[in-house]
Amino acid sequence: MNKVLAIVAVLALLIGGATYFGMNRSGGGPGEETRERIQLAASLLTRGEARQAAEVFDELSSEGRTLGKEGEFVRLRAFDQAGRSAEALEASKAFLDRYPGSERKTEVELVRLTSEVASSGVGNPVLRQSVEEFLERHPNHSGAVRLHVALARQDLQLGDNSAARYRLNRLMNEVDGRADDEIRELAKMLGEINLDKLLSPALGDGDISYTVASGDTINGIARRHGVTEELLMRANNIDDPRRLRVGQRLKVPNVDFGLHVDISTNTLTLTNHGQFFKMYPVRTGREPGSTPRGEFRILNKKRNPTWRPGDGRVYLPGDPHNELGTRWMSFQGDLYGIHGTPRPETVGHYSSNGCVGMITEDVEELFDLIMVGTPLLIEGEQDTTRHKVIPAPDLPPPQQMASN
């Protein structure tokens, strides 16, 4: 009898210990240690450390741990955010099978669809239909951006630029300036579509066809129609403005551009007739408040500007340390402007004395598109959790540029 009692006591201790250390492998709820590790993974996700969160679940799986409903939900989110699409797809399918009535069904279904799209695209008509139906049921779901991007990308692959533009324009208007990675990808795609359409010879909505008359010049035509010379030339593949021919037909783009700088995301959004046109990364002031906020207008435009930092030094055009780069567009006196930079690695961060800085290709493109007088709105606060503060560089003396 005593021997039997001893065996029972040992078994009780073993079972209790297994439960405490989360070693329940029979399908029951997770043990305390397992729950703590699930909570750790959830915290890692909150901090944006998805890869580390997914590795927590790799360890739990190798140990045969039971996760329970909440743990399985965190696991599929971790795999999804870590970009492990195949495992996220498998985990989301398993969750939906096991908990069909879960209050998290919509979130899990979103992970399932985005994971399947990431794995195979939306070329499969059945999958595309599932994606379209999900978006119809949840049109304003904050996590559906990737699905819209995937559908728009396929529209582009199929040559249906109009459908892609409509989808992305609608979504960009709904997200109201968000600038996470998915939105940046979306904005890049839409910006390229919009610019290609603007610069193509085909007439778009509101564009006009102008016939060159005797005495016309590119400058005169552009001024009369409220566009830049550069835009008129680019839209008509004109290399030399002196070679206009009487009777030549020109496309005059219908544009009404505006600019919006968001300091919190370090982005500059170009709008056309109030609608999203293109988004550019920018740098803004390293000191809080050093980039002026408010409503402004572009006051003047200069090619290859000279930079005078205010300490008596003068950096001429072409000097590799000229912080204005190749273009200058002032918006407050001649003190603050949108300009280029010889240090592209600083764009996207808080790294200027207060001006709005862009990489060379972007500022030259923007310069060609907008007129003096274009409205500019600057708003937002610094977000140093996402963007670095970069100290001012130690500038060497200006170079002595050779005279022509």
What is the element layout, followed by pairings?
Blueprint: H1 2-20, H2 32-46, H3 50-62, H4 68-81, H5 85-98, H6 105-120, H7 125-137, H8 145-157, H9 161-175, H10 181-199, E1 208-211, H11 218-225, H12 229-235, E2 249-252, E3 257-262, E4 267-272, E5 275-281, E6 284-285, E7 294-297, E8 300-303, E9 327-332, E10 336-339, E11 350-352, E12 356-357, H13 360-369, E13 375-379
Helix pairs in contact: 2-3, 2-4, 3-4, 4-5, 4-6, 5-6, 6-7, 8-9, 8-10, 9-10
Question: Could you explain the architecture of this structure?
Answer:
A hairpin with a 4-residue loop joins strand 3 and strand 4. Mean pLDDT is 89; it is low at 1-26. The strands form 4 sheets. The protein has a 5-stranded mixed β-sheet with strand order 5-4-3-13-7. The chain contains 13 helices and 13 strands. With 404 residues, the protein is of the alpha/beta class.
Offer a concise description of the structure:
This protein has 404 residues and is an alpha/beta fold. It is built from 13 helices and 13 strands.
Class by alpha and beta content? alpha/beta
The CATH fourth-level homologous superfamily of the largest domain: L,D-transpeptidase catalytic domain-like
Percent strand? 5-15%
Give the termini distance in whole angstroms: 110 Å
- How many domains make up the 3D coordinates? 4
Q: pLDDT under 50 segments (min length 5)?
A: 1-26
Provide the CATH top-level class of the largest domain. Mainly Beta
Question: What sequence of helices (H) and strands (E) makes up the elements?
Answer: HHHHHHHHHHEHHEEEEEEEEEEEHE
CATH topology of the largest domain: L,D-transpeptidase catalytic domain-like
Query: How would the global form be characterised?
Result: flat
What percentage of residues falls in helices of 4 or more residues?
40-55%
Based on DSSP secondary structure assignment, what is the total number of beta strands?
Answer: 13
The average pLDDT is 89
Q: Which CATH architecture of the largest domain is right?
A: Beta Barrel
Number of helices: 13
The side-by-side strand order for the widest beta sheet comes to 5-4-3-13-7
